[in-house]
Design goal:
By secondary structure, the chain is an alpha/beta fold. Helix content is about 45%, strand content about 15%. It is built from ten helices and ten strands.
Length: about 260
């Protein structure tokens, strides 16, 4: 598929998705969300891809928000449908992907951009990054999971302050709050993320996918995370990766995982 709003590349097991709408500061619109869904699904089905890095083009923005012009005239029903479809197609989809997704936050991550970063399994920020959820300044609230994921990551009080003030925080403040795992110079951002990806790739893709599922279960209403973990733990015993990992350990050699 030829994409108009994103760039996709893959090398040595690491795929990079770059949101590429620089004239709009990489703002999300329906077309971009659909392209991201297609690319993520394709990469997740590709056994040769072990880690996905998501970033924005240029030096100014990861994603500066949603494309407001698309929904400024929406009705109540259309607004609810916009949020539901977006969450299903992209934000929940990223969070539940079996392949690890690292958010490389370069520059502004505002509104839907921060929500997209938060749906990644973890985040690394450039030192010039600015993050915030400014939706209430437009008379609306975050609709792509921001009111749920931000409190999970930084706590209820900090999240409500960010949402109610509509303010931005710096990369260092985001690090101290636990919103991002690392802060690095912008020029080093992608290489740093690829370094983490290389460490992830030494481990079992099958086990990592089950770990993502088990961790996510803790944050889902009506789901017992401990029961999910027990089932996921047991499932690992029936995989080739488990046999390879334990055999390699006993034989004192490096494991060669296949993700099966």
């Amino acid at each position: 598929m030829n994409y108009e709003n994103i760039l996709v590349s893959a090398e040595q097991g690491i795929a990079t998705i770059t949101i590429n709408r620089p004239s709009k500061l990489n703002a999300l619109n329906k077309a971009t969300i659909a392209e991201l869904h297609h690319a993520l699904n394709t990469l997740d089905l590709d056994a040769s891809v072990r880690v996905i890095i998501m970033t924005g083009s240029g030096e100014k923005a990861f994603v500066a928000g949603a494309d407001i012009a698309e929904f400024a005239d929406f009705s109540v029903e259309e607004g609810a449908q916009l949020a539901a479809q977006g969450q299903e197609l992209l934000f929940d989809f990223v969070e539940n992907l079996r392949t690890p997704v690292i958010g490389a936050v370069n520059g502004f991550a505002l509104g839907g951009g921060l929500e997209l970063a938060m749906s990644c399994h973890f985040r690394v920020a450039s030192d010039n990054a600015k993050m915030g959820l400014p939706e209430v300044s437009l008379g609306v609230i975050p609709g792509y999971g921001g009111t749920q994921r931000l409190p999970q990551l930084i706590g209820k009080g900090r999240a409500l302050e960010m949402i109610m003030t509509a303010g931005m925080i710096s990369a260092e403040d985001a690090y101290r709050a636990g919103l991002v795992n690392h802060v690095v110079a912008q020029a080093e951002l992608l290489d740093f993320c690829k370094g983490i990806a290389a460490r992830i790739m030494k481990n079992s893709p099958m086990a990592i996918g089950q770990a993502i599922k088990a961790v996510n279960a803790n944050f889902k209403e009506g789901v017992n995370g401990f029961e999910t973990e027990i089932k996921a733990f047991g499932k690992c015993f029936g995989t080739e990766d488990f046999k390879e990992g334990t055999t390699a350990f006993l034989e004192k050699r490096k494991a060669e995982f296949t993700g099966k």
